[in-house]
Specification:
The protein is of the alpha+beta class. It folds into four domains: 129 residues, Uridine Diphospho-n-acetylenolpyruvylglucosamine Reductase, domain 2; 120 residues, Uridine Diphospho-n-acetylenolpyruvylglucosamine Reductase, domain 3 (2-Layer Sandwich); 230 residues, Vanillyl-alcohol Oxidase, Chain A, domain 3 (3-Layer(aba) Sandwich); 33 residues, no CATH class. It comes from Dendrothele bispora (strain CBS 962.96).
């Protein structure tokens, strides 16, 4: 840690920089212009006004988008007289351009007993992209995209793309369009496809047709924490390939590239539906309208539709559904029972159905999905994968008789009454992506039976204090999500969009795969260089608050306590 006698001297850091072709960057927090002695009123004002722009943090070597994990260190919204402490920012980062940079960085961290972190875009809800006292590798400028017309292997034959670690979903979607193809990529277009997204499973608007992002991985190039450059595929280092395909990012190695499947582009139809509580006859009818959406979801999943729904105690927005290779008439027929039900409830709604010639045009027809305008939302999360068995097969069935759906609606109403917002992802991950998906990759088995990845969010202002933020996160984790856990025993959650203080993260994020993943981690990361509080093996470590938040190994004498949100951001 900085301040220790064993912390590398400036001369040692300089010598490291020489071996890295001058690519070592000493952290200067992005908001240093808002604090003395570097205070600049004009620059600070610009930073505050643009603080929620994704590209602001994506293009900075050490800033992260979900900046609660910086724990208000050098915050642009505090007084200029407040010291600009580095806090949970990494101390140094390497702007890597070749594998040797990663090897030298990880070897240096190992030699000097430094914490080691991987950052790509910084789009990370779980705090893995930063760490107190750490040396980081910044992967964002690895921008290679190679089209492979015919990838040929025993497990797949067809078009593919080899992607450098810095490629985002928006970039590969637009590149694939040039070849008349699509690639499974994230709903947030600023997500780096090669990092935590594909390694964590990764849902997509194409998942109901082609499966999860992890189902697309054909091979990885990866630098193990031992310094070895490895290929991981179904036939080479197959255990590492299995773990990287859904077992969590930043855990088993530093991924340099991934080769993924590509599929023919076709027309895509979208459908949006919105209504508010003020456009319903009463509150009961409003919630019956929301219930009708969930009662329709099995029908949507069977028809291979995916989409997003956002709702609170005031309004519902389906924004939108995506129907791959289906016409407007097809989609109108699919959604007609929902529309009929809304009408019978006396709800005034808006509806828009449109067909686009290709996937990119359809996806970016929703303004909030465009990377140029996509913002970092200041919210707290918890989530649960809801199994398909919870929902009726058709909305025409008597909803009152569906006990699971009734229980879900009581939970959703309780969440809304406590100012929570639901961010629902409708995704039926197509298990035909492999003959036996659970054997080929490490995604949580709950995905294969799931229909919704339902997230619960609470929003906060930039100026909000950590005490209020912590209180709200604990409300999400130990109240909202706990109700969903009781409703869905044996299920899990998407490990990239979940509560950072999830009490049983081993089961919730990894399920029956956890012990196998732990053995693979120990094989490829024997020195335990790669850490995340909810990563495989993360329960072996804790932040020692009495020793400068140093990362220490858990022993039999370590105190066990409830995972509060404040402790989970002690990074």
């Amino acid at each position: 840690m900085p301040g220790d006698l064993s912390w590398p001297s400036t001369d040692i850091w300089d010598r490291l920089n020489d071996t890295l072709d001058g690519r070592l960057i000493k952290t200067v927090p992005i908001a240093s212009v808002c604090h003395h002695p570097n205070y600049d009123e004009v620059k600070c004002k610009h930073l505050r006004e643009n603080w929620r722009r994704s590209d602001l943090h994506m293009d900075h070597p050490t800033s992260i988008m979900h900046n609660i994990y910086l724990k208000k260190a050098c915050d642009p919204f505090t007084s200029p007289d407040t010291p600009c402490d580095i806090g949970s920012y990494v101390q140094y980062t390497v702007n890597v351009s070749k594998p040797d940079h990663v090897k030298k960085a990880v070897n240096f961290a190992k030699e000097h007993n430094l914490r080691f972190v991987i950052k790509n875009t910084g789009h990370d809800y779980m705090g893995k992209s930063t760490g107190i006292g750490a040396l980081s590798v910044w992967m964002h400028h690895l921008q290679d995209m190679e089209y492979i017309e015919k990838y040929d292997s025993p497990h797949y034959s067809g078009p593919s793309f080899k992607l450098g670690a810095g490629i985002t979903g928006a970039q590969i979607s637009r590149k694939a369009k040039e070849y008349g193809l699509v690639v499974v990529s994230g709903s947030c277009s600023t997500v780096g496809i090669v990092g935590g997204y594909i390694q964590g499973g990764g849902h997509s608007t194409l998942s109901s047709v082609y499966g999860l992002a992890a189902d697309q991985a054909l091979s990885f190039e990866v630098i193990a924490p031992t310094g070895e450059f490895l290929i991981a595929s179904p036939t080479e280092n197959s255990d590492l390939y299995w773990a990287l395909s859904g077992g969590g990012g930043g855990t088993y190695g530093i991924v340099w590239s991934v080769t993924v499947k590509a599929f023919p582009d076709t027309k895509v139809t979208t459908a949006s539906i919105s209504f508010g509580i003020d456009s319903a006859p009463n509150e009961e009818a409003f919630y019956e309208g929301i219930k009708a959406y969930y009662a329709s979801s099995s029908r949507f999943g069977t028809a291979k539709l995916s989409g997003f729904a956002v709702h609170s105690g005031e309004r519902f927005d389906l924004m939108p559904l995506f129907a791959y290779n289906q016409s407007s008439d097809d989609v109108e027929e699919i959604i007609s029972p929902l529309i009929d039900t809304l009408g019978s409830l006396g709800i005034t709604y808006t509806k828009a159905v449109a067909t686009y010639p290709n996937f990119v045009d359809a996806f970016f027809s929703t303004p909030s999905l465009q990377p140029e305008v996509q913002e970092v939302s200041a919210f707290l999360l918890g989530s649960r994968i809801l199994p398909a068995s919870l929902f009726p097969s058709e909305i025409s069935q008597d909803q009152i008789e569906n006990e699971g759906l009734d229980k879900l609606m009581l939970i959703l109403k309780d969440i809304a009454n406590k100012k929570g917002v639901i961010l629902d992802i409708l995704v039926k991950a197509d298990s035909t992506a492999y003959a036996n998906p659970s054997e080929w990759n490490a995604v949580h088995p709950a995905w294969r039976n799931g229909l919704h990845s339902l997230a619960v969010a609470m929003f906060f202002e930039n100026e909000e204090g950590l005490e209020v933020i912590s209180r709200d996160q604990d409300l999400i984790t130990y109240d909202f999500v706990d109700q969903l856990r009781q409703l869905t025993p044996g299920s899990g959650a998407y490990l990239n969009e979940a509560a950072p203080n999830e009490p049983d993260f081993q089961q919730t994020f990894y399920g029956t795969n956890y012990n196998k993943l732990l053995r693979i981690k120990d094989k490829y990361d024997p020195y335990q260089m790669l850490y995340g509080s909810t990563s495989v093996g993360g329960d072996r470590w804790f932040e020692n608050e009495s020793d400068g938040r140093r990362l220490c190994q858990v022993t039999k004498n370590s105190k066990s306590k409830k995972r509060s949100f404040i402790s989970s951001i002690e990074l």
